[in-house]
């Protein structure tokens, strides 16, 4: 049978309702959409937890060794795989003199140039100089009518950096920071790594300068432990409960294809009985299946798209790939079910099907 003849026959069956296209499209949309949405929601939840873990400083490891952190070696850790930033810090012996707070000067920290890349900063118009924590900047800013930085310090106000009260160590919550060259020794080395790696703690200790005669005391801690000591997003995605939903939806989609054909066994057996070739019937049924499987898959992908929109790049791509895999395997299973159902129908059972009706 020619393609145009197959298209006409498939169209007649769709228009007359013989195919039950709307009904089967709704069933398949529910099957694929449920699997896609539940998995996308789970992936989205894992992604949000991972992002919150990073935003709150859970991915930051602090190596503390008073007066023994090599600034250059600490900053060099930023070149390691997965390390997004590294900065060495030390507290200045003298506090910062602020004209707005003459009686209670805040602590002043010196940081290597990686500081501005490490924190979310809000620069001022003056350019380089002293950075104030958000809390300190807010307090100083409320005292109108006075200069921000004491002129005797001979430095400018560079801006402020975010340091929220979200469970993290509050060592920099009410402080000022000034960038200095990465030379000499510091007290702490902050390393931000994502995804996390098990060997980071041992690698980070390379920033500690260790004399042979008197090894310094080294303390390793996490900036924020309120969300746990570690979070392996890749492992959580691999072990998520909904990872098996594509398999279940594929099986159900295959059964949908079989049932869609078996409900028309009398019609199909009759066509075979009068001499219609089975390959022509397969082509016709395939065209009819495409007419209702494609809209169902499109609805499932649209639902995944809406859920993935707020996510970051990598998580959104993961949702899309997972949804695409679910829809592709489901559509393939439907087609296999269609052909399997067709293969189970024999023309010699035409009269039996007629009597069973």
TrEMBL record:
User: Which UniProt key words apply to this protein?
Assistant: Membrane, Transmembrane, Transmembrane helix
Does Membrane appear among the keywords? Answer: yes
Please give the start and end residues of each transmembrane region: 21-41, 244-264, 285-308, 320-345
The protein's name in its UniProt record: Permease
Organism of origin is: Marisediminicola antarctica
